Amino acid sequence: MTTVAHDAPADAARWPDVVAVPRPSRPRDTVTAALVRRALRGLPLRVRLAGSDDLGLGGPVLQVHDPAAFHARIGTGGLVGFGESYMAGEWDAPDLVAALTVLAAHAADLIPAPLQRLRGLWAPRHPHEERNTPDGSRANISRHYDLSNDLFALFLDDTLSYSSAVFRGFPADRDLLAAAQHRKIDRLLDLADVGAGTRLLEIGTGWGELALRAAARGARVTSLTLSAEQRSLALQRVRAAGLEDRVSVELCDYREATGQYDAVVSVEMIEAVGAEFWPVYFRTLDARLAPGGRVALQAITMPHARMLASRDTFTWIHKYVFPGGLIPSTEAIEHTARDHTALRLARRDAFGAHYAETLRLWRERFTERADEVAALGFDETFRRLWTFYLAYSEAGFRSGYLDVQQYLFTKENPAR
């Protein structure tokens, strides 16, 4: 059950766009209210607008406590405003994931087709400073991954893995999450044929679990990260495991990597690269991989048509969670690798239902430990933000709007 309203006002200095309700013109407000009612009326939801009749065909409940503020935010900020309205406590849902899953499943037709075609005129654009240049990437990564190692430890399992696990069955059991994360890692290492003596490059360290597991197989691992907080804890874990001689964790952009490796592994890193730099990313994989080597990638994906429609739009997730991020389509990944590298696609496995369950376990744990999150200095607005982010992501996978893939790319050895 979600919280119905804030216990205390949001901090205006920290959350200016949550505290300040936009003041659209009367015509814009009228048009927005009409469009919102039109969109919600045909959905399998029960939308309760305070002071008005219910909308929708029935289903998960979405309770709008302040319709005027809700419409004002959507009318001026679109999906950014929708998320900020939740952060402000202006709407809630007893089952937030269920309500968001309905919206995600109908994302393509929530906005009338004529307005979709004019998206470039009304949708907010990405800030120039959030381009994923080397400097921009460092700033973007820091805003998310350097929040607090202690925060992530509160809701992740003991492996500190922040990507989709692979379960044996559903519903997933929290006590088996660490084992499911190891299953995911082992599948990637097996795809890349990592074993004793393998020279492995990992792009995106996380908190080091994959590097530790690869080193335990006898590999020599160079792992790259842009997060100082993650690197610090990953190095502590490497030392505690006695694997300093096999694992190097470098604060380094993927574009600055050198050397050649038998295998390259990158887990849910491509989402932070940005479409502008996808060719550079794949050329880097190609350049760093020795002939005869293998690349194993794990990537969140979305339908190609939706990616093309939304790739230039600045969203709530960009503003508050992952600045500069863009989820690719399978077509974008495969075409970029084909057109810019000597890598060849050998295998692709999708397992989106596993990510939905992974996110459910994280979200439930985050909710249970809300007091500990608060004790770390994260206020109620942040906790609503993070709850919305986890639920929003879970809904994406439950609706099929998002998926997750494990890829194997190979590189021929011309000497053979």
Chain-wise SSE layout:
Elements: H1 16-19, H2 26-41, E1 46-49, E2 61-64, H3 67-77, H4 79-87, E3 91-92, H5 96-105, H6 113-117, H7 119-122, H8 134-145, H9 149-155, H10 177-191, E4 199-203, H11 209-216, E5 220-225, H12 228-240, E6 247-251, E7 261-267, H13 278-288, E8 289-301, H14 304-310, H15 316-320, H16 330-340, E9 344-350, H17 352-368, H18 370-375, H19 380-399, E10 403-410
Parallel strand pairs: 1-2, 4-5, 4-7, 5-6, 7-8
Antiparallel strand pairs: 2-3, 8-10, 9-10
Written account of the structure:
- One of its GO terms (biological process) is lipid biosynthetic process.
- Belongs to the CFA/CMAS family.
- GO terms for molecular function: methyltransferase activity.
- Its EC number is 2.1.1.-.
- Keywords: Lipid metabolism, Methyltransferase, S-adenosyl-L-methionine, Transferase.
- This protein has 416 residues and is α/β, with parallel strands linked by helices.
- Helices cover 46% and strands 15% of the residues.
- The chain contains 19 helices and 10 strands.
- It has helices at residues 16-19, 26-41, 67-77, 79-87, 96-105, 113-117, 119-122, 134-145, 149-155, 177-191, 209-216, 228-240, 278-288, 304-310, 316-320, 330-340, 352-368, 370-375, 380-399; strands spanning 46-49, 61-64, 91-92, 199-203, 220-225, 247-251, 261-267, 289-301, 344-350, 403-410.
- The strands form 2 sheets. Strands 6-5-4-7-8-10-9 form a 7-stranded mixed beta sheet, sandwiched between helices. A 3-stranded mixed beta sheet has the order 1-2-3, with no helix packed on it.
- Strand 4, helix 11 (209-216) and strand 5 (220-225) form a beta-alpha-beta unit.
- Helix 2 packs across helix 3 and helix 3 packs antiparallel against helix 4 (79-87).
- The longest helix is centred in the last third of the chain and has 20 residues, at 380-399.
- The radius of gyration is 22 Å and the shape is globular.
- 44% of the residues are buried.
- Residues 1-6 have low confidence and may be disordered.
